[in-house]
Amino acid sequence: MRTITLAAMTAVALLGATEARAQYENKVKVQPTGRILLDGAIYAPDGALYEYRNADGELISGPSFADGVALPDIRMGAKVSYGHWQAKIDVGYGYQKLGFKDVYIQYNINPNNYLRGGYFVHQFGLNAATSSSMKPAMESATTDDFFKATGRNVGVEFVHDKDQFFTGVSAIIDGTSMSKPANEQGKVSVGGVTRLVWRPLREEGSIAQVGMSLWYQSALHGLAENGSVTEGYFNYSANFPTRVDKIGMLNAHIGDAKGVFKLSPEVVAAYGRVAIEGQYYYMNIARRNNLESYRAQGAYGLFRSLLIGSAYGYSHGDAGLATPAPKSLELIVGYNYTDASCHKAGIYGGRTNDYSVTLNYYINKYILARLRYSYTDVRDSEVLDFNKCHVNTVQARLQILF
């Protein structure tokens, strides 16, 4: 009996070793990547967000929405792997602008740990590893955009992904280093980011996860005309949640800044074909010259249900829910609140609420059709002249992603 057991264990060990060698085979593999988004949208009101007459009787009109269609994101790139090494380069085009997206080199230490360096989205919150075109509610949560939770930065990241625990730790340099040499920045903005996740349940149809993300970064700087380094600053902004029209609704410039601290707890749960996920954001920017710190906060929550399809699955690499299988029809109801105004600091970035209902039909592995309705209101926003504004938006999208 012992001989049989020993032989079986030896066979399993040899099989595991063979699979490990096969996984890191010293052979160059190239996989092309790309995406095309085709969007259409209608708005109500279809016109100026606000109108009023100033003291001189002059009619002042705010920014206007216009129904239309767009190709907001077209990308081409490639993934290359060789043994333990892999690399990715991704170039995007939209609205007459061409720019780099993910550009990195990665070393896979083993199946559970890797080290990555380059320009990419670092692990901070639920959406860090999710492509911008695969956000469940079609568009990124305003909180994600405003707090730059999923913005790209130059840096080095270590990720541990095994069993109940997922950890991401990064050292970053602000993404402006992709467009400006260090000497033109005056003083480079650097920081550290981490995401810690505990997931006691991660089987198909039975998922439970909680996590916490932390971020600290020194202020951005510039060069004055005399060559001296300017005071530190940060800029945070967000548009209305649509890509057919681009209209800003939140905007905060924080001068005399020392550094920014951000934290974001997260939660995910799924049972069968029903799931919920949510995230809270808090940000504090310390300032010089005895100025009051700037504080902002926000949160979003999603209720997800597969009207057609099997139970929700789990994606270890993303530390979140997996993309539903082809032929699935998904309903998502979402709410998002962002408070970018800090009266104590005298900064009026604005407050917004967004309510949305989204239908996603996963046609096949590469093609997805979406339909979304949202109601968005904004107030206390200096960029909108402190007018109370709202818009109803119906959007449709056909996307190809490979």
Q: What is the strand arrangement across the widest sheet?
A: 1-4-5-6-7-8-9-10-11-14-15-16-19-20-21-22
- What order do the SSEs take from the amino end to the carboxyl end, as H and E? HEEEEEEEHEEHEEEEEEEEEEEEE
Low-confidence stretches: 1-20
Proportion in helices: under 10%
Number of helices: 3
Main sheet record: 16 strands, antiparallel, barrel
Structural class: mainly beta
Description:
The longest helix is centred in the N-terminal third of the chain and has 22 residues. The protein is 8% helix and 59% strand. The chain has 402 residues and is mostly beta strands. Strands 1-4-5-6-7-8-9-10-11-14-15-16-19-20-21-22 form a 16-stranded antiparallel β-barrel. It contains three helices and 22 strands.
List the helices and strands and how they pair.
Blueprint: H1 2-23, E1 29-44, E2 51-53, E3 59-61, E4 68-82, E5 85-94, E6 97-110, E7 113-121, H2 142-146, E8 152-162, E9 165-173, H3 182-185, E10 190-203, E11 206-218, E12 233-239, E13 248-255, E14 257-271, E15 274-287, E16 294-308, E17 314-315, E18 320-321, E19 329-342, E20 347-362, E21 367-379, E22 389-401
Antiparallel strand pairs: 1-4, 1-22, 2-3, 4-5, 5-6, 6-7, 7-8, 8-9, 9-10, 10-11, 11-14, 12-13, 14-15, 15-16, 16-19, 17-18, 19-20, 20-21, 21-22
Which short descriptors sum up this protein?
16-stranded antiparallel barrel, 8% helix, disordered N terminus, 402 residues, 3 helices, two-stranded antiparallel ribbon, mainly beta, globular
Summed up, what is this model?
This protein is mainly beta. 8% of the residues lie in helices and 59% in strands. Strand 10 (190-203) and strand 11 form a beta hairpin.
